Amino acid sequence: MIKVLVVEDSVTVCKVLFHLFQQEAGIEVEFAKDFKTAKALMGKNDYFAALCDRCLPDAPNGEVIEWALAKGIPAIVLTARMDEDERTRLQGLGVVDYVLKENRFSYQYAVGLVKRLQRNGDYRVLVVDDSQVARKQVKDLLERHQFQVAEADSAEAAMIQLATGEFKLMITDYEMPVINGVELICKVREQVDRDELIIVGLSGREEVSARFIKYGANDFLRKPFFAEEFYCRINNLIQAQELNQKLWQRAHLDYLTGVANRRYLMTQLQDHWSQSVASGQPLCLAMLDVDMFKQVNDQHGHQAGDRVLQFLARELSQSLERFVVGRVGGEEFAVVMPGLNGEQAWRLIEAVRRKVTGQPLQLEALSLGVSFSAGICQGRGDDTIDTMLRRADEVMYQAKEAGRNLVLLEEESV
Ligand SMILES: Nc1nc2c(ncn2[C@@H]2O[C@H](COP(=O)(O)OP(=O)(O)OP(=O)(O)O)[C@@H](O)[C@H]2O)c(=O)[nH]1
């Protein structure tokens, strides 16, 4: 939970912001109607950010903004008017942004900005430039928007840092000794695609801008650039990437449990099977079905049934981190286990069965015992993914017939 302070003397603006913040989980908002109250609150509370009215009865010239910044609180300015001089002055002070109090979209933008800053805190950015002064300028801008920033003074140093795979964004200059920014992008793109790492090129040379994009940058900025444009571009790129990730998740993951959906599991199974055939490494497939699941729904309701599915999916994902877990039907899950032979796969799934049956699921006052039956087969030379699925399914039904709460390995896979 983060705490945000709104310093604003207009009751209407406070009401609108209160309403908008209330819809956001994880943000607590406090209000101060004047500079004096704001100072007292900032003195005793830790604020993640402050939305500060530029003109208050007891602070008509943005004094509250400077006060918040001096306390290390990121400040977003609320203002009725803005001109070029004031914009430059505010940027110089180091504010996050300013919001013109025009309409409800302005306030939505302000609330969205707080959420953006909160998420930015999880993102690492690499700034690549041989000039320390230029690196510092970009780093300062990024830190103002809460990004975690690392620096590299050459393309070679950047490649080493990028190998950690921790970065969301790289901002690179063009002109650097030995390897320039465009060459760096070419090298990076051999390993990491546009969805995994956003790259922005910086250059004062017009002809370089297009080359940045052609060779794999997501965007570029001409130097010298305005801080406001810099932030708009970076935020847009990150929002687009977040949206892509959301779309990817919707297309590939099961909405209820968060594990792979049927289609994604099938493509993963196909890929792993092709690799297994090519490498000669074993591949096992397990099909799991919750026992007496209809009874759970009938006796305790559909919601309780959903909780059982979520519980099992969580247990499977946690215990089988290295493998692909998917929900392939109502109460049916599958696990793709490359590199394991039948015995090894059986031991692993059996360990999960013991763990699941050993800890009843607590649903408020209700304690629900959950168990599953599973069938495992190891891929053979003449298999397709369909024959593997059929064989694992058949063994799973044998486990059901044998009394449930049982993991069986296909005889031929022993
Ligand atoms: N809560 C919930 N139930 C689901 C979902 N999808 C399928 N089901 C239910 O899963 C149940 C499956 O029941 P059955 O196939 O008869 O199997 P079972 O009761 O688990 O019995 P055995 O498999 O023989 O142990 C049905 O009642 C479906 O309505 C879901 O997403 N949520």
TrEMBL record:
Segments forming domain Response regulatory: 3-116, 124-238
List UniProt keywords, sorted A-Z: Phosphoprotein
Gene Ontology biological-process entries: cell adhesion involved in single-species biofilm formation; negative regulation of bacterial-type flagellum-dependent cell motility; phosphorelay signal transduction system
Q: Which residues carry this modification: 4-aspartylphosphate?
A: 53, 173
Q: Which cofactor does it need?
A: Mg(2+)
Q: Where is the signal peptide?
A: none
- Ranges of residues in domain GGDEF: 281-412
Is Phosphoprotein included in the keywords of this UniProt record? yes
Classification via NCBIfam families: GGDEF (TIGR00254)
The entry's protein name is diguanylate cyclase
Annotated source species: Ferrimonas sediminum
Give the lineage: Bacteria, Pseudomonadati, Pseudomonadota, Gammaproteobacteria, Alteromonadales
